[in-house]
Each structure stands twice: as structure tokens, then as C-alpha cells.
Amino acid sequence: MFDGQNLFGDAGSFAGGWHVHHAVDRIARDRAPIVVAIDHGGVDRIAELSPYSDGSRGGKLDAVLGAVTETLLPRLRTQLPIAGLPFIGGSSLGGLAALYAHFLRPDLFAGALAMSPSLWFTHDRFARFVQSRPNPLHSRIYLDAGAAEGRGSTSVLVERFGRELRRRGWRATGEHRVLVRIDPRGRHTEGSWRRRFPAALRFLLAPDLEARN
Prior knowledge:
By secondary structure, the chain is α/β, with parallel strands linked by helices. The protein has helices spanning 20-27, 45-48, 61-79, 93-104, 123-132, 153-167, 190-204, 209-212, and strands at residues 87-91, 111-115, 139-146, 176-183. The chain has a single domain, classed as Alpha/Beta hydrolase fold, catalytic domain (Rossmann fold), CATH 3.40.50.1820.
């Protein structure tokens, strides 16, 4: 998961942590996932987590994903008991990065957790990229947004992305699954993502995915 400073305790985040480890303990005691936190680069965060440049910033995500896929994932598989394909996730730009990573390398990432993804950033280029990619053999995508984020624009883009996936065959069940959640009291904050994370985790860890990995 991206924005690793925010995932566990409060100390590393300016806005409080997600407390991911507590959610894992509560929800997945029998088959707890391994959560790997990838810190962002501070002032370089926008560049690192966006696949395209808007003319003045962004566009270095391919290099970051190269390090993840060529160095980090092989190392993790030698050090940890990892079975099957991992998911990739994040919020805001991290959510955008997760969606891009899944569609770029569905052979390496089984799906994406995208909370309040920044679909507005270089939106047209990102939309064309997703449209150009074939459907993965298997996919599970969690999407959400707060109803008032960006004066409602974030939820509009998230719902539009969900409709496009459904048009292409994603459903609530089956080989291609999508869950879209619009949180009526959600904000673009760590607190909102912390509150919604358990539902996202339940969706991703539904048992029938195990047989496909």
C-alpha cells in the first residue's frame, strides 16, 4: 500500500494513521494478510504516484512501479510466506497509482484498493489508458469516495469509473468484481479512510479469491 507513513500509527502521519494492523487483527485472524507499507517521497509524492505529467508535475509512477515489481516483490517472496498475487492499494493519488498498477500489471497484482482516487489528475490520459487495456483474467477492485469530496466531483468520477468497469463485465460476484462505495459523511481525510478500510479489506479477502490465486 502506498503512503506508508499513514498506515499504522499516528506518529508518522500529519493527519493520523489508518491503524491498518488493528483492522487486520479484527477481521482476518484466521487468514491475516501481510500489509507492506511503501512510504511516499514527501515533496516528490505527486511525481511518484502519478502515471502522467500535467505539464508541470507528475509522471514518475512507472519508475516507482519498476522498483516495486523488480526489486521489492521478489525480495518479499524470499523473506515472507506470500501465496498468490498481492493486491495493491492506497488513497487519493495512492488510489490512482493502485488502479494504474493493476491495469498495467494484472499478472502481478490481483486487484486494487482505491480510496478517494485522484481520477481528476490527467483524467483523459488515464481514462484512455484503462480503456486500452484488456480485461485481466481475474480482478477485484474496491472504489470509494466521500460524497462531498471536491464538492462532489470525486464521487462523480468514482461512480463513472465503476460504471465503465461494469460495462466491461465487472460485477458484484465472479471473476471480475467491483465494489463502489460512496460515503455520505466521508471526507478526503485519513480518518475517513481509516473508517472505511475494514469494509474494503473484507471485500478483498472474500474466500473465493483464494482458489483463483
